[in-house]
Amino acid sequence: MQWFPLLSRLHFGYTQNSIWDLGANSTPFRDISFRPSLFWQGAIPGEGLMPDMLRAGYEHESNGKDGVNSRSVNTLFAQPVWRTGFSDGRTLIFAPKV
Length: 98
Description:
Layout: E1 10-20, E2 29-43, E3 53-62, E4 72-85, E5 91-94
Antiparallel strand pairs: 1-2, 2-3, 3-4, 4-5
């Protein structure tokens, strides 16, 4: 990505949530949501209260059905990320998504 270095920070993510009804005799899945996302992520050189990293992108959430049973939401988001490391090797991350 030497020609356009910003594209090297472009990422694709995918999340799928399935809610089971373990007591059901058939069709044990109550709901399934699919959420692909495309986002840019980059470090921000800064000090003090400035975040360490920034994510910004697009997410689409859908249940994969059509007609009256369809559910679909498109979201644009920005997500600043702050990290704090501790002496014992643990890290605390605060990343609110707006």
